[in-house]
Amino acid sequence: MAIIDVAGVHMHVQRLGPGGGRPGGDTVVLLHGLLTDSLASYYFTVAPAFAAAGLDVVMYDHRGHGRSGRPATGYGLERFVDDLGALLDRLEIPGPVHLVGNSFGGTVSFGYALRRPDRVASISVVESEPATASWARKIAGLLDRVRHEMTVNETEALDWIATHRGGHTARLARAAGRLVRDTAIAAEVTDCDLVTEDALRSLDRPVLAVYGADSDLCEQAPWLGSLLPRCRTVVVPGHEHSVLVEAPGRVRDLVLGWIAENASPGGGDEDGRDTGRDGRRAAAVPVEVNVP
């Protein structure tokens, strides 16, 4: 565990596995969700398995979350993308990395891949979507509801959560309420350049997108598959938004398979785009798979 300065914010970072610089090794960077999430959701699910598979695993708490610093302002999506780039520089990680993003972490991953495709070997997102106008409306509505519940009806809301979701979830909700009340995240996070369909069509990075069949985000699967040139979508029956926590074995196997499929001995070819182990570029894979 380490607390390091990243883009002017003290960032809580944990690293598992063989470490950077291992010849032929791959680095996977795990990005968690918004408000109630932290790197712990990876630490207690898939991160140890990724490290055991020989990957250099990097995970960190976003600004305002977990053990990272909580500035009063600076929560636009672009700042989260900046943080990811600054962290890679700070850790001196060589070569393109594999990004794994849960929920909002996937949105950050899309943003970084669009900005720096040369530094991305592959993307795996779980219950996530890029920062489109639709995303902005949903996130703004969610943050408005959280701000209202945690200021006007906090005690009632937390009691309900504790009764129906458990004490741990209630504690996470309390922390989320403080973040929304005490910082500008609700006003700032959607203040960014939104992603267009044309931009997504230009994203020549292999993308694995995993959704719960009972989630509202499941409709993203065919849409992303139709736009992204190199995308595989997977729908997991019987799950809603918490696929990572509720089905970690499925997520582990899917992501490890995707990384292996899109890894290369050098982490990428001369123009920054990844190749397969035989030196050829991976083909487009707009396939939807239901995992029982």
Automatic annotation (TrEMBL):
GO terms for molecular function: hydrolase activity. Residues 27-141 form the AB hydrolase-1 domain. Residues 263-292 are annotated as: Disordered. InterPro entries: AB_hydrolase_1, AB_hydrolase_fold, Carboxylesterase_BioH. Gene3D superfamilies: alpha/beta hydrolase. Keywords: Hydrolase. This is Lysophospholipase, alpha-beta hydrolase superfamily. The lineage of its organism: Bacteria, Bacillati, Actinomycetota, Actinomycetes, Kitasatosporales. SUPFAM superfamilies: alpha/beta-Hydrolases (SSF53474). It holds the Pfam family Abhydrolase_1. It comes from the Bacteria. Signal peptide: none annotated.
